[in-house]
Amino acid sequence: xxxxxxxxxxxxxxKTTSCVNLAYLAAKEGYRTLVWDVDPQSxxxxxxxxxxxxxxxxxxxxEDPNQFSHLIEATDxxxxxxxxxxxxxxxxxxxxxxxxKSKSQFKKMLKTIKNQFDYVFIDCPxxxxxxxxxxxxxxxxxxxxxxxxxxxxxxxxxxNKFFVDHLYDTRKIxxxxxxxxxxxxxxxxxxxxxxxxxxxxxxxxxxxSSTVERMGVNQSPIHTFSSSSIPAQAYRNLWxxxxxxxxxxxxx
Length: 252
Ligand SMILES: Nc1ncnc2c1ncn2[C@@H]1O[C@H](COP(=O)(O)OP(=O)(O)O)[C@@H](O)[C@H]1O
Ligand SMILES: [Mg+2]
Fold this sequence. Notes:
The chain is an alpha/beta fold. The chain has helices at about 15-30, 45, 60-65, 90-95, 105-110, 130-140, 150-165, 185-195, 210-220, 230-245, 245-250, and strands at about 1-5, 35, 75, 80-85, 120-125, 140-145, 175.
């Protein structure tokens, strides 16, 4: 099992959108895939047509990793499963801090399902605390969507610094560009600067497109209603690139 976390300290960059579309593509290829919605806003849960809330089961999840698999539910799509988001997850740092090994709880939980899934996609809230530490420890890759603006570079730096300060492996961080508008000079400049300075990022990027926004109206992954659109193809390219990450191949 490989766990990808969709993470960025910034909100509105495309974490949830990317999480749902990438997970859908993995499942479509026949891989057993889980979306774990950790964000209390529960947008990934919404896109997959589930209602928010773990029905009082949330507490168990934190106390006993062996209960983790009971939270998994099927979605409308073959091979695609979900752990719903829950508003109570907004207190997750507090819940985690009560535990003995508070930084490794996610790792323990994921271990219990490692033979059941090929891929897990974790949709994260934009926070940097105990929850983030759990995510950074348990995920094999931290996919970081970046809108090519000055602030995105700053966000990347901050995440990098957090990894270095806490002795996490910075090789896990995999940035990629989203909501790219090639007509914008700044977008082009930032992306060129990334290339020239050899800052690590994936080659595939996701263009800005109003078709992506329709995911909210349709409550489904983009490939189910606009499979031949440019952003749908961009997500397919991104997924192919992810599968070929060297470390991923080593781990598989
Ligand atoms: N490539 C894109 N083009 C246009 N709009 C996008 C794109 N990606 C995301 N969006 C829109 O931007 C908003 C934030 O995206 P979302 O994935 O929810 O971000 P995050 O999870 O990082 O907060 C949503 O309304 C979404 O529909
Ligand atoms: Mg989100």
